[in-house]
């Protein structure tokens, strides 16, 4: 039963962070190869609050060029947020016993998009790794270092 739940969790996370990859076949046994294990070092920030503004602003530039109305497939808004990510944010809020909920239309708001980004980082990136944040925004929780390298380079370049 735990293997079944693991498969469901991996599938949900894949749809959440990168719906285009989710449509491709995934080998569950190899989801940990070429992932974050070798990348969490100098870009981690100790526990506490990290100022993600420069990262979020760079992601907005790369994802949409600052266009709040940008659309690509099911992704929309300045940070190209998917409906699955909105649902995941609402699930997180529900688990925190918060009455706040995001709507699909919130993807078009820079402020609400940033709130969703921060919520996802709080849950899936508790060590505040900048590299992990950027790569997982592009490639999902079980991202491939190789497949997210170009995106990472683009975002880091915008942060300069």
From TrEMBL:
The entry's keywords: Signal
Cited InterPro entries: Lysozyme-like_dom_sf (IPR023346)
CDD domains given in the database record: LT-like
Signal peptide limits: 1-24
Entry protein name: Transglycosylase SLT domain-containing protein
